[in-house]
Amino acid sequence: MRMDYLDEQEDREQRAECMNRLRKRKQFLLERLEILHNKKFDVEEYKVVDSSVQQEVLDCLEILDSYRLLGVCIKSMGPDLVLRFDPLYKNQYPTTEHYSVQLLRKGGNFELGKHNLPPFIPANQLLEKYLANGIAEFVEETRNLLYAYVQRREGLKYTQETFGDNIKGDLDVNLAVSYVKLQLCTSDRFPELEVTLQYSLEKCLPDTVNIKPAEDEETYSVSKKMLERKVEKWRQIFLNQDIFTAVSDIVKEKS
């Protein structure tokens, strides 16, 4: 248990160090683009008057674009910072929306400014908790929470779109998609199942899974023992896979 904690701590330190390096590199690129802009380069319209700096400009822009793939972009606004989060879902941006957080410098510290984070992400508490160690840990924790939320939200969305015929009635789901209850029809041999999934906010996979036959289902063509075995198998599938993959595997079972 102690070794697991040390490994996790070392991993967090390495990620924080990586984030600091990326932030410094991003700031350098932004400053370099400002210099190029002063050489009669219009960054917004991609118009270069001085052709001698055209390739350097394009190289800088390409590198800056790659930062978005990391899921977070940090921009300096004078003494303040603006963080932009773009969580991916299956290597794609699910929507054109993004989340931004303004950090206002107050002396040697930061205070939370305007943001559009979901209400279930405790931005103030996170900032207070991690501020002493710099903003890298705040950025990492916020990114992890947003990433997990987007995986749950988009996974549920695609599950509904793909397997709508297998999902009966209305879903019971909270804003954070950390609680999901659905009624799933697997095949004619088995009763409809009430599936309840509960997640920690920072996780993509559920912490607990409860599956039971729907209350209004009284007859089915398999024995009680076989149904219990199936239910346990399906419970393990939900525990170890995202909701879309889990439902896909279950409804495609032949027996």
Characterization of this structure:
With 255 residues, the protein is of the alpha+beta class. The chain has two domains: 2-150, Chromosome segregation protein Spc25 (Copper Amine Oxidase, Chain A, domain 1); 163-251. It is 45% helix and 22% strand. The chain has six helices and ten strands; from the N terminus they run αββαββββααββββαα. The strands form three sheets. Strands 3-4-5-6 form a four-stranded antiparallel beta sheet. The chain has a four-stranded antiparallel beta sheet with strand order 7-8-9-10, with helices on one face. A hairpin with a 2-residue loop joins strand 3 and strand 4 (80-85).
Percent range for β-strand residues: 15-25%
Helical residue percent band: 40-55%
Coarse morphology: elongated
**Quick one: CATH class of the largest domain?**
Alpha Beta
What number of domains? 2
Largest sheet: 4 strands, antiparallel
Secondary structure tally, helices = 6
Biggest β-sheet: strands ordered side by side in the sheet: 3-4-5-6
- Helix-strand string: HEEHEEEEHHEEEEHH
Going by CATH, the architecture of the largest domain would be 2-Layer Sandwich
Cα gyration radius (Å): 24 Å
Task: Tell me briefly what this model is.
With 255 residues, the protein is of the alpha+beta class. The chain has 2 domains: 149 residues, Chromosome segregation protein Spc25 (Copper Amine Oxidase, Chain A, domain 1, 2-Layer Sandwich); 89 residues. 45% of the residues lie in helices and 22% in strands.
